[in-house]
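Below is our example:

___
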Amino acid sequence: MRPALDRDVDVRPHPHIGLSTVTYLFAGEIMHRDSLGYEQAIRPQEVNWMTAGSGITHSERFERARAHGDHLHGVQAWVALPDGQEEVDPAFSHHSGGDLPQWNEAGLVGQLIAGSAYGLTAGTQTHSPLFYAHLDMGPGATAEVPHGHSERAF
């Protein structure tokens, strides 16, 4: 067992406005709590999409990792809300791994986290046209990045 995490690593309650935060985990668990009343654990291959809009306060706690010495590995992306939508009502949604489209083709295993790509559409509500995918590529596998997006991150 790994050493337990100190409480100092918890992300204490703090505010956001005008953007969405998107949390996706590869390993471990995070407990999300927010001012809308949501309390939701997120685990590998799941997504938490929090739209701050006009304002939300939330915390992220690493309770399981602290208690059991678990490993934690994930990504949190911040997605700007489009002009004129920065003040939308705050919202939170959680999507389990089974709810997100997946595919396995020629050494490429993929999961569509948000948006539309590769002939699939995720049920995650977004405020602008985008796609967010987790691609696990085996030896020799290739993936074509869908065209028509002005910004990309890999």
Notes: The first helix runs from residue 63 to 68. The CA atoms of residues 113 and 133 lie 5 Å apart.
